[in-house]
Design goal:
single chain, Rossmann fold, alpha/beta, 13 helices, 353 residues, 10 strands, 2 domains
Length: 353
Amino acid sequence: MSQPSAPAGTVMLDEIRQQARLAADWAGAGGYRVDHIAHAVASYAPASVTLIARGTSDNAAGYAKYLLEIMGGYVVSSASPSAVTLYGAKPRQARSLCIAVSQSGQSPDLLRAMSAMREAGSLGIAVTNDPAAPLAVQADFVVDLAAGVEHAVAATKTFTCELLALLDLATAICGTQAPERAGIAGAIASVIAPHADLDDAARLLGSALASAGHLLVVSRGASTPIAHEGALKIMETVGLPALSYSAADLEHGPIACVHAGTPVIVIDSAGPAAGSLAHVIARLVDLGAEVIQVGSGDAAPGIRAHIPVPRLDPLVAPIAEAIPLQLLAHRLATAMGHDPDQPPGLTKVTRTS
């Protein structure tokens, strides 16, 4: 007799929960081993940093951009792989540190972009979950995420491990104090645990999304890449449009598409961005948006639901903030009858050229 199939989304939910153990292991081991890479970078003395990534990994790279700019004062840019693959561009000789972030390390456009940067004299670092992948072979140094095999199409644990690895890498390169890892791991475990606040938010968000047919995810500063990733997770699993913006960019035009009933997730943590986000939340509430607030900031007046996240250093908080958005994506998808483990039209490894 055949065994009954597991409920939709079982794999994704299990991999979200695995992040508590992975974070605890990371903290217990004292982080990723990147000191030798930092020494090599110091000897190389880069004038700038170039990031190469796609999709979820590009959102993780966006987090690294904030870290390197804020902690190290580096000029950081995101490479356009198609400049090399479609237009035949050749990077000029420059002392640029090249960091490529890819879960699989297999996409041809990332490989060619890294190769072009290396040929131009860049020092190359690959951050990947497969240390034997072509991208890793091509780089000078490799940071192995060691997240274990990820089966769900929508990446969760590899994304969080990318954030942890990039935090360690940026901290070491910039020569700043190592993060308080036990606190980060504890915060991750805390937000993975069942919460009535998340249940309430998922119900409210699901109802508003069913009516509006789309949603927005908004943040500011170092949490902005987490907004982009949260929107991507919802699009992957729910199959409806989710737009993501920096709160500053939202006010430069896109806020015009916010109407009564528009669902908006705002990632709002205590720290330098809190003031500007409070202003934006107030505007969204005045427009009649269904605002779900996620983060360590105090619940703002007029919001519909608040998912609290333990207070962490503002540059570290984005790592814990990513988890509730993964859980919301999972719950929205399953509530709407979708299987987030196997979204239609998507594959686990995407190869673009």
